[in-house]
Amino acid sequence: MEAVSSLFYKYFISGAIDIYGGTWGGDECHGYVDPSTTVKEGLLWTSLSLLGVYIWLPKLILKQTTPLNNGRSGWIDTVLGVIHIILLLYLVWVKLSTYTGLYMLQPCHLHLLLEAVWLFSKPTTQTTRYVQGHMIFMMGAIMAMALPDTDLLTKPLEVEFYWVEHIMIAFVTPLRLLYVHNDGTFGFGPMLAAIALFELFHWPILLFVDLVTKVNLQFLLCPTVGMAGLFRTMPDEFHDNFLSYRSLVSVVWTPSCVLFGVLYLVFAWLLFRSKSIKVN
User: What does pTM read for this prediction?
Assistant: First the structure.
């Protein structure tokens, strides 16, 4: 058991703490926010996320699902799916070889995995809801391209794979999925359910993983230097109304993801307007 624990630490944790440090993780990052604030924020955002899931999950998970006649184009979806799998395997190799395996839990990587699953899935009314819900990821993927952080990408072709991954998950695969997994409805409910699940994944799950391992996934332990500086320059009212930088980010980022997802759906609707679309 000790050997397994040692291997897990080496390949999944040690890179962030022992090699990179700083905002990647470690004791200093772990102690950035006091424990009482972390407990309060965790309880607050977990409760709000659970409420959102309770309200909106029926819009995402259907009681009955119906196959669609769209069918898969076959070779197009297969080629895209294979590209996604190659990207995932490369990412696994990079993370393990840099001893940062836990970073496979980053949203962009999960986004890549989900799209791969749907590329190999037959279209149904249920997959339509899933594909519409995952539009909340679009803002993060596009922001990763607008503000790329590639300084530490030193493995062979890692920078190139970074760009291919984000172009695929932001501009290529989503449009293909929205075209194929299309039952003629256009709704915001799946995205609201997805953002609630996304927050639920962040607060009780990723926060717990971060606290236990001291790895700063999604900056839930400490902010980036720029993020911390911005938070310090804000008026006292902001500090009084938000428990820490994490709550401020959630208040701004969460509705922004939904709004951006809605705009992406509207763009897709205009692009595929030859199909019969019903807003629900």
Answer: 0.89
Residue with tokens 């772990």: 30
**Alpha carbon 246 to its chain's center:** 16
Q: Tokens 């001893």 appear where?
A: 99
For the beta carbon of residue 220, count every other beta carbon within 10 angstroms. 24
- Token digits of residue 143: 């922001």
Q: Within 10 A of 50 (CB to CB), how many other CB atoms are there?
A: 15
3-state secondary structure (DSSP) of residue 124: strand
Q: What is the 3-state secondary structure (H, E, C) of 44-71?
A: HHHHHHHHHHHHHHHHHCCCCCCECCCC
Dist CA 149 CA 163 (whole Å):
11
Taking a C-beta distance cutoff of 8 angstroms, is the pair 233, 107 a contact? no
Cα–Cα distance, 258 to 187 (Å, whole number)? 12
pLDDT tens, N- to C-terminus, the chain (280 residues)? 778 999 999 999 999 999 998 889 999 999 999 999 999 999 999 999 999 999 999 999 998 888 887 656 678 999 999 999 999 999 999 999 999 999 999 999 999 999 999 999 999 999 999 999 999 999 989 988 988 878 788 899 999 999 999 999 999 999 999 999 988 887 789 999 999 999 999 999 999 999 999 999 999 999 987 777 777 777 777 666 778 889 988 998 999 999 999 999 888 888 876 554 454 4
